[in-house]
Specification:
single chain, mainly beta, eight-stranded mixed β-sheet, seven-stranded mixed β-sheet, 7 helices, 39 strands, 10% helix, globular
């Protein structure tokens, strides 16, 4: 069909719809949204919690469009008007001036999502949709948005270093393909930068009014459950179901090993160690993360975590230590609405009228197309994790039933109205089933409960011409309006570290430049023995041999643990399976950094007498760590992956940073870290 005929067909369709529809609710600005052919499988598909980036027709059925709804309810089918048929579209994001937008699209038989830019959105403007130049070819590029400097941020499944043998990266759960992180593209020069490396994926990034990138990240840092099943089968002398194995390295020529060894974190089945019985460890949590627009400062939003958001029962790492608890202390934090684990927060977007307040869906991780209740997360940068709160916007479940239906993609408009995609399905569908509908609607406050309920639909219901009679799903609405462009923020060193640099005669600029040239970052902790008072699940009565000691005032007769070394691990893609391409990440002792000579375990630095540590680590690769005793036995383990940027100098005052007070009732450590002084002395021999 000719493009002019398509445009006319689209216009006639919308005119007919408008003529037979009741008067549509008004909005202050136009809304961009997408339509999607209804899905019948919530596993690695377009609306799944994870592995939602795949471009096959099964994962993302063609037949949707990019739509524009004007304030009076008139609709404009943008992709049809531009001549695109048989497409799938997702996640529009509006430019700061409100005149153009980015989105991702699959065209026809193409199997990888690509980023497009649409302009000419005014009622009398000529429409244009063009593919973004210089984006990674052959990979899925999604969730695009403009940063403050006119570059484009997006998620992608491009391998961290572009190596073909590592594609796709497989997640830490079921070894399902995953996006590798958030990337930045300069469309003018083609410069491509990885802002964070996420072994199990990052989703729905946005830039808030403070200039922070806010996104959902999947924290699933645990041993491989598929390899565990292989080990169990091997022990029972039966066939290995997954035939998992390790490569010796990430290079294409690295040999396959007759091994499925893992060294971090704890076993999924539990084990016995120097400090008694070690609990089995699993984790599965989607929560809000932030970082600066240059990729520095990656951490959970305001340092909030499971202790504050999913409080209640948490498994202690060592079962034989009576000081460790299987419960959290609710009195420590302001939040009173607990998230369910094996799920979390999805589709976060800042409220247009309430800076630092974000609407999100609190959903489980499967079998719901990430539909559930809407919650509000209040987390302005001035707050710490103890002060962050969640409140209900719509009703919670009653026996896994959401009376009045379920929601997706909440949006707070600039005029104060709330919009979301709503389905009348009150329960999550059974595997292989679908939702009854998914329509854009206004949300209205219920006079009895004060919570919001679905109000009038924003469209008359959309169907694709010559396609199924089934209504299309309406998703991912954004407001087409101009917004203030927030400045990109820059982190600055605090007084203790500035004092050490000054005492050693090292300028911050020279140090950062040296790090950038070598693709390294510097990470510093002031006191490894200081831990936030909320964490009662990992050892918190700690001392450095011959040095600082921090013990809880309520400690009983349990162990006081010595920590002597800080051991770092990097995310290497080493785990493979014969029946699927790509590799899963495993934690391996740091080998790409630059560590001073030492006698501790591989990839470690010594913990100084004041509890401090300092290390030069690789940029652009996910890292994690643990403290160990003198013999290298694990004591306290990190539960997340963190990425650092070249030239970044990142300081964590404590290991599990202090929100308000540490385990001894003291505030954030302010000591001048001796380990930084020692590292700079050694560094000056390298920098000559």
């Amino acid at each position: 069909m000719k493009r002019s005929t398509l445009r006319l067909a689209g216009a006639l369709l919308l005119t007919a719809l408008a003529a037979c529809a009741p008067r549509a609710p008004a909005t202050a600005y136009p809304l961009l949204f997408v339509t999607q052919v209804a899905l019948h499988e919530d596993h690695a598909s377009r609306l799944s919690a994870f592995a939602n980036h795949l471009g096959t027709p099964e994962s993302a059925p063609r037949g949707g469009d990019l739509m524009l709804r004007y304030p009076d309810g008139r609709l404009r089918n943008l992709t049809l008007e531009a001549g695109f048929e048989q497409v799938a579209v997702r996640e529009p994001s509006v430019h700061w001036d409100g005149r153009k937008a980015l989105f991702s699209m699959l065209v026809g038989a193409a199997r990888t999502w690509q980023i497009y830019e649409v302009s000419g959105l005014g009622e009398n403007e000529a429409l244009a949709i063009v593919r973004l130049v210089h984006q990674p070819d052959g990979y899925n590029n999604l969730s695009p948005l403009y940063d403050a400097g006119e570059r484009v941020l997006f998620t992608s499944d491009r391998p961290r270093g572009g190596q073909a043998q590592l594609y796709p990266q497989l997640d830490e759960y079921e070894a399902t393909p995953s996006v590798t992180g958030i990337w930045r593209l300069d469309p003018a020069s083609g410069a491509l930068t990885m802002l964070n490396h996420t072994p199990s994926g990052a989703f729905s990034p946005a830039i808030d009014s403070y200039g922070r990138i806010v996104f959902t990240r999947w924290d699933h840092q645990q041993q491989d459950q598929l390899a565990e099943r292989d080990r169990n089968a091997e022990h029972n002398r039966v066939g290995l179901p997954f035939k998992s194995f390790n490569y010796s390295g990430e290079d294409a020529a690295a040999p396959a090993l007759d091994s499925r060894e893992e060294v971090f974190p704890e076993s999924r089945a539990g084990e016995h160690g120097r400090y008694g019985e070690v609990s089995a460890f699993t984790t599965n949590f989607f929560t809000a993360w932030t970082m600066e627009q240059d990729g520095t400062g990656e951490e959970t939003l305001d340092h909030v975590g499971q202790h504050e958001l999913a409080f209640g029962y948490l498994t202690p790492s060592f079962r034989d230590d009576p000081n460790l608890s299987n419960h959290t202390r609710e009195a420590n934090h302001a939040n009173r609405l607990a998230l369910r684990r094996e799920g979390g927060l999805f589709q976060l977007r800042e409220d247009a009228r309430r800076p630092g307040s974000y609407l999100a869906i609190a959903a489980r991780e499967s079998d719901s197309f990430t539909t559930d209740r809407i919650v509000r997360l209040d987390g302005a940068p001035a707050l710490n994790g103890d002060q962050v709160t969640l409140t209900a916007v719509t009703a919670g479940d009653a026996g896994d039933r959401l009376r009045g239906g379920r929601f997706r993609n909440p949006l707070a408009l600039s005029d104060g109205q709330l919009v979301a995609s709503h389905t009348s399905s009150e329960r999550a569908p059974a595997p292989g089933a679908t939702l009854a509908d998914l329509r854009l609607c206004l949300l209205l406050p219920d006079s009895a409960s004060g919570l919001y309920v679905a109000g009038a639909p924003l469209t008359p219901g959309l169907r694709k011409p010559r396609a199924s009679a089934e209504l299309l799903w309406e998703l991912e609405a954004v407001e087409l309006r101009a917004r203030p462009r927030p400045a990109a923020r820059a982190s600055a060193l605090e007084a203790p570290e500035r004092d050490v640099l000054a005492a050693e005669g090292v300028t911050e600029a020279a140090l950062r430049a040296w790090l950038r040239q070598r693709d390294l970052a510097l990470i510093v902790t002031r006191d490894q023995t200081s831990r936030d008072r909320a964490d009662l699940q990992q050892p918190f009565n700690l001392q450095v041999p011959g040095g600082v000691k921090t013990v809880s005032s309520s400690a009983g007769s349990g162990t006081v643990y010595e920590i002597a070394h800080f051991q770092l691990f990097q995310a290497d893609q080493l785990r493979a399976y014969p029946d699927r391409p790509g590799r899963r990440v495993l934690a391996r002792p740091l080998h790409d950094g630059l560590l001073p000579p030492g006698t501790g375990p591989a990839g470690s630095v010594r913990i100084a007498a004041d509890g401090s540590t300092a290390a030069l680590v690789p940029a652009g690769r996910a890292l994690t760590w643990q403290s160990t005793d003198r013999e290298g036995r694990p004591v306290v383990r990190e539960r997340n992956w963190i990425t650092f940027q070249a030239g970044e100098v990142r300081v964590c005052a404590s290991c599990h940073g202090v929100n308000t007070l540490n385990q001894a009732g003291r505030p954030t450590p302010q000591n001048r870290p001796q380990a930084l002084r020692d590292l700079l002395t050694w560094w000056k021999t390298l920098a000559k």
